[in-house]
Specification:
There is one protein chain. This protein is of the alpha+beta class. The protein has three domains: 60 residues, OB fold (Dihydrolipoamide Acetyltransferase, E2P) (Beta Barrel); 63 residues, DNA polymerase, domain 1 (Orthogonal Bundle); 69 residues. 52% of the residues lie in helices and 17% in strands. The protein is built from ten helices and five strands, in the order βββαββααααααααα. The chain has a five-stranded mixed barrel. A hairpin with a 3-residue loop joins strand 1 and strand 2. Helix 8 packs across helix 10 and helix 9 crosses helix 10. The longest helix is centred in the middle third of the chain and has 21 residues. It is globular.
């Protein structure tokens, strides 16, 4: 299994790129969003990859993050979603957008992707909704590991104390990862911290995925 390629961009096509890895050219299919993020021809590039194996076909699909790759894998598990539809959804929404849409049950956002009808979009939300928090937690953990500016546990607790007087009772690391995942989805630090604090206060000892799921319900628009 080829999980990642690092080399130089040899050329860019309409829906794929060729990456030269020590003299061997790999054709990698990408979403529109990933293609737009590619560097210039001849420059260094690295993509996480997923290999599709069929009787008469081998295709590599490329992603800029492990979270995007995981969403591709999950989307492909839904009936009616093939590689083309998965790339369309990820191209339209991005990994963070897919996380938000699936977690909040936003069928409209999913069906906005080219070639995805309302019934298929509904299946995506129904079948993957419970898996969204775990993927989002993966993003939070990766963000913290890469030191991308995610708050420390002490900063999380400080923000929580200011935003809402609910003492965190769950695992501090889980709260930090949940806050990081929500921040990656675009929620303001204060509202994300408040939701995580409230979720932790009502679910003592909850893990990251459960905290994210509970916080998202609190952050969902009312009415």
């Amino acid at each position: 299994m080829i999980g990642k390629l690092s080399g130089r961009l040899d050329y860019r096509g309409m829906d794929h790129v060729m990456i030269d890895v020590r003299g061997v050219g790999y054709i990698v299919y990408c979403s529109d969003r990933t293609l737009a993020a590619m560097p210039g021809v001849g420059e260094a590039v690295a993509l996480y990859t997923d290999l599709l194996v069929r009787e008469d076909l081998l295709q590599l699909f490329g992603f800029t993050s492990l979270v995007e790759k995981e969403w591709h894998r999950l989307l492909m598990s839904v009936q009616g979603i093939g590689a083309k539809a998965s790339m369309a959804i990820l191209g339209a929404l991005g990994a963070e957008g897919v996380s938000r849409a699936v977690a909040l049950g936003d069928v409209t956002a999913i069906k906005a992707a080219k070639g995805v009808g309302p019934k298929t979009a509904q299946r995506v939300v129904i079948e993957l909704k419970d898996k969204a928090p775990a993927v989002m937690a993966m993003g939070g953990s990766l963000g913290a590991a890469l030191d991308n500016g995610a708050p420390s546990v002490e900063e999380v607790i400080e923000v929580i104390d200011v935003a809402k007087p609910v003492a965190p009772t769950g695992n501090a690391a889980a709260q930090s990862e949940a806050l990081s995942a929500l921040s990656n989805l675009g929620y303001a630090p204060s509202e994300a911290a408040s939701a995580v604090a409230e979720a932790a206060g009502t679910q003592g000892g909850a893990g990251t995925s459960d905290l994210i799921k509970a916080a998202l319900k609190l952050l969902a628009p009312k009415g």
